[in-house]
Amino acid sequence: MEKVKVCLVGCGWTGANHFNGYRAIPEKAEVIAVVARSDESRAKVEGWGVPKIYRSFDEALKDDEIDAVDICTPHYLHAEMLIGALEAGKHAIGETPACVTRAECEQLRIELWKHPDLKAATGHICRSWPTYAQAKRITSEGKIGGVFYLSSNYAHKPDPDEYPSARTWGRTPYARTRLGISYHSVDLLRWIAGDVDEVYGDYTPHARLAILNFKNGAMGKVFSSGAVVRPYIMSLSVYGDEGTIICWWEEDILHGHLHKSAEWTPESLETTPMHGRGSPEWQYEMENFVTSILEDKRPVCPLSEGIKTVETCLAIDEAMTYGIKVRVRH
Ligand SMILES: NC(=O)c1ccc[n+]([C@@H]2O[C@H](COP(=O)([O-])OP(=O)(O)OC[C@H]3O[C@@H](n4cnc5c(N)ncnc54)[C@H](OP(=O)(O)O)[C@@H]3O)[C@@H](O)[C@H]2O)c1
User: How far is the CA of 16 from the centre of ligand 1 (A)?
Assistant: First the structure.
């Protein structure tokens, strides 16, 4: 295969970002088909110059020319579409969360077991932001020593007109875990520190707090809120016994510092501009997915990891609901 022929399913906010990501790598990928159901979606994608526009997902799955399916539909459709794609012999990437229930986690694991030759990934975009990728690299190379604590804040009070598609994501009570879209924070911490053993959490109407005990002995904390009076925050702090990494948003740029001593002279990490403002992360995400197919490599966020992040978030929700510590089951 010289380049991956992709079918994009769902052409809303995320689908358009994925499309532009593929368009930036024409030597590796081509979006040859799109699934657009509504007249509004069809009118939108007609301007994209994609050769085939299907009305339904099932119709698209019968197209033998399609190598890979990219699922950008609401949460509650992710599992059934991922399963459909893998059963049809297509590589697949699904938007976040990978799925919404424990039963779906189990079904997806069975699909992965049935189709070891297909690449399956989850679009945890934070793994494609250069600043976080550098933080991950530094930590993995042991440059901050043994990690003993890490945290992430995901807090945002979006203007409903700025982000209208948020209303369509859920459409099922299963999708509304108390941590909300902070599954990105949970995934970021899991990417850096590995699997979580046990979680605890509590919440008020405006603040949700999760404590994570990682299998490697590190502790983690995720704070989530939709009521903050300040711009978007998706931060990361990683504390090791030989160094500290702090990543934060300022204006619309993600910054990072690496401290190797108690002096006020940290090393700066790569910066990343925010979505839609010159940021390359969608290109990196799509490139990573198609490269995993072309070169038979592990994607940066395999579906197996997306499933584990969902299982961790469901355990956190259970802990918050019952006020107890909960073991994470994978
Ligand atoms: N990774 C990230 O940073 C990130 C950011 C934002 C969102 N997301 C995730 O991306 C997903 C989509 O969010 P969004 O903001 O892109 O939503 P959106 O703008 O509402 O788009 C959803 C799309 O799904 C399509 N759709 C719905 N049901 C379908 C079906 N049965 N078959 C085919 N297409 C169907 C809709 O098309 P029609 O109009 O034709 O029905 C619509 O174009 C969500 O799960 C969300 O969590 C991820």
Answer: 10
